[in-house]
Every structure is written in C-alpha cells, then in structure tokens.
Amino acid sequence: MGTIRYAIIGCGVVARKHLQGARYHQNNRRSLEVVAAVDTRPGAAEKILLAAGFKAKEIARIAIYEDYQKMLAEVRPDLVVITTPSGSHATISLEALAAGAHVLIEKPLTLSLEQADEILEVARKNNRKVAVGHIYRFFPLVQAIRADILSGHFGRVLYGDVKVRWGHGQEYYDQAAWRGTWSQDGGALMNQSVHAMDLMTWLLGQSVESASGQIFRKTHHMEAEDLGFAILTLANDVQCLVEGTTITDPKRPEASFFIRLTEGEIRAGILSGKPHIAVYDHNGKNLASSYTRRIFWQTLRISGIQGLKQLANPHSGLLGDLIAAIEESREPLASAQSGRDAVALVLAIYQSALEKRIVHLPLKAFDLAKMQHFFS
What we know:
With 376 residues, the protein is an alpha/beta fold. It folds into two domains: 4-134, Rossmann fold (3-Layer(aba) Sandwich); 136-304 and 335-360, Dihydrodipicolinate Reductase, domain 2. The protein has 13 helices and 14 strands. The protein has helices at residues 13-28, 44-51, 56-59, 68-75, 89-98, 113-125, 140-151, 170-174, 188-192, 194-204, 288-309, 314-328, 336-355, and strands at 4-9, 32-38, 63-65, 79-82, 102-105, 130-132, 157-165, 208-216, 227-234, 238-245, 254-261, 264-271, 274-280, 359-360. The strands form two sheets. Strands 13-12-11-7-10-9-8-14 form an eight-stranded mixed beta sheet. β9 and β10 form a beta hairpin. α10 (194-204) crosses α13 (336-355). It is globular and about 55 Å long. The model has no long low-confidence stretch (mean pLDDT 94).
C-alpha cells in the first residue's frame, strides 16, 4: 500500500513510547511516516514529539491538531494510534475506522464488551486492522519462552501466578478527573493489570473458563479499586492467581509472573525498571542465559544495532507487527479480539466481586456502570 501515514491522538506520557517506536520504523523502513499529532492541550503534541526524539525540523513537517475529528477529515491518515483515556477509546477508534484508517488502541481496548464488539464488526466491514497495546507480547524473550511452553518442552502447565504492584500516590489520580473512575478508567485491575493478565493467558495458551475475584479500595480517594485479587481457572485444569494494586511504593513498581510446569518453572518480571528472568528445566538448571544469547544474536543478525536498542521498547515491536499485518493481510499478534478477551476477563472479575460468585466465561454482558456504587 506504499507509505503508511501515521497519526497519534493523545499526547500523554505513554505516547512518548509509541512515538519512539514510530520514529524507529520511520528511520529504518520507508513504509511509515508520522504525519499528525493531536492533543487538546496546546503545546502537548510538540513537547511529546521532542521527548520521543523528533528534531525540530521533523516536527515542522508534522500537522498538529487540538481536534481529532478535524485531523481525520483533513489528513486522512492510514494508521491512527489512540492513547486517550480508556473511556474514549471506542468513540475515537470507530471514527478513525470510518475514516478509512487502521487503528492501534492503547490498552484496554474499551471498557465495554458491546463497544468492543462494535469495533470488531466495523473493522471487519471496512477491511481495517486493529491492534491493542498489549506490549508484553512483544518482548522477544517472552515469545521464545511461550513457544517452548506450547511445544511441551517443559511438560504440562500446572498453574500460574501474576502480580502487578504498580504504586501511585494520590497525586496520580488527582492529575486528571477521569483517572480511577468507573466510567472512564476502572481501577488497578483494568488499568494497571490488564497487560499482565493478557500476557499470562497468552503464555499459557489456554482460554479462561471462570473467574473468582475480590476488590478493595484501601488508601486512594477514587471511585474504583486500588487492590484486587482473582483466581482464574483455565482449560485443562490450569489455575492462575492474580494480584493487582496501586497501593505499593511508587518508587518500586513491580510486575511479575510465575509458571509451574511438570518439567520446570519460569519466573520473570520487572522491579524498579530492572528486568529479571529465570527459566528452570526439570534438573533445576537455569536456562535464562541461553535464551538471552539466542535473542541477542538473532536480533543483531536481523535488525542490527538499532534493533538491539529497540528491545527495551516493546512499542516498536507492537507497531512493527501491525505494519506487517497490514502489508500481509493478516491479523496482528495483539489483535482486537485478544483485546476484547482481556476486557472480558477483567469484567468477569469485577462481576464476581460484585455478585460474590464464580463467573463463567465467555462473558455474555457486564456493564461497568453496575460497579458505580460498589464502595458506597
């Protein structure tokens, strides 16, 4: 289709990582060009473009808008990245699809299954691709480990454990009125933990059959939860424990997972920005270094030094896969359907907490509006 003309709507903190990925692809492949950036706050787009590494002369060639609808009508981009508050994802993505663009939506896809299904249907009718920002799928090391899990290299999966302790002070929620609200954001499970839950179920290669959850609001002044737990039962009698919270020390953010198999175990995560991983075989030998060496040399051979530098920014992999999906007429690795499944899983946990029962999936319908008075 020639050069893909890229536009981003929403120029907050996470937009910098998306734009760093876009600049990498723009500089290393001729099929992408950043043509527009949108934010309702004057000066926000220029500021985030500079932070992402764009030079002043590059920014001068990028159209800056405060109204995304005007941008869609005038620029007619081929690909739109949406990093606005979660509650606005559906409306903006549907308008971008109607304008003929492929779409990359920051997680979560939506806060509603009805809206998610509408996005899937409109994308299908317009023959457009939709990807979701589940970036953990795009660490090459994680992809290699998943391949070995699914091949049976480590035997049968017994159970998993995922923790997201992503602390925020009250000022984080006070910065924007939508944060921590049921209508626009959800709490620690929907906002901070949906990445990790998507990763765990993807790694295990099993569909979730039921969820039992509890949520709490411990220290923050907000509508939704700042602490949540769940027990998930997956196919083939596999269980997964989930913990998601924002009440921990903001200076020590942590996300981790553990998988126990009959012939080994896997531990990985990030603590205070430092990654760690251990992959043990049935003899207790740690295979992590062999995985790391393999990924290093594969990346160096295929993408060179610049590719190695991008390993720390999975947003580059997310965008690269979407570009390839457009060019190859296939579904992205982090497809809209996978985004819908992740939203359904979190909604099932919320429904379980509200109704104090185990909720079975696939989820037919559950509206976050039902959670509005949960802590009243």
